[in-house]
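Hi Y.,

Following your request, here is the sequence exactly as I used it, all 193 residues.
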Amino acid sequence: MENEFRAFISNFPFLNSDEAKIIVENTILREFNKGYILLKEGRISKECYAIVRGCIREFYIKDGLEKTTAFFTEGQSVNSFSSYTNQVPSKHFLECSEDCLLTVGSQSLVDQMCERIPRLTEFIKNEVEKDAGELQERMASFMTSSPEERFTDLMENNPSLMNRVPQHQIASYLGVTPESLSRIKKRAYQKKA
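Below is the corresponding structure, written out as C-alpha cells. Let me know if you'd prefer a different format.
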C-alpha cells in the first residue's frame, strides 16, 4: 500500500522529497471493499478521501430509486463538502464501486500537514477551486445537453468508466433508463462503424 501511495504522491512534482516523506509518513491509508458505504445519507461527514486506487460513486435516493450524480477515480478527492464543512447531515451516499485504496483525512490532519508544509495550503485551495469549477461545468453540461451528448462526453473524457461500474449506474448518471442507454450505445457505435 505504501509503495502505491508513494507512486501516487510522485504525481505532485511541487513537493520536494522531504515534503513527500512527511506526507507519506503521516497519511492514513485504508483499503475498502467494493460496495462499502463511506458515507450514508443523514450522517455527518467526518472524513475526506483521496483515491489512490479504485472508483467511488456518489448517489441520492429519490422516490426509492438510486440517482447517481458522480463517479470519482484515481487522483481525485472525495468529500461531502457541505456536510463536512458545515457539520450537517449528508443528503447523499458515497459508495465504493470497486475495491479501493484511499487516503483518509480529517480537518485536524489537514491543518497539521499545512503547518508543516505551508505550500500545501495554496495547493489545497487551488484543488478545491478546481473541483468546484468542474462541478459547476458538469452541472451546466448536464442541464443543457441531451442524453446522447452526455454519453459522448463520458466516452471522450472517462471511457474506462464503462467497464468499471454496472451499466444501470451509468444510465442513472446520464439520466436515462438502462434500456435507453443500450439504444444510445448502439446508435453511437453504429455512427463509428
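The chain has a mean pLDDT of 90.

Thanks again,
Q.
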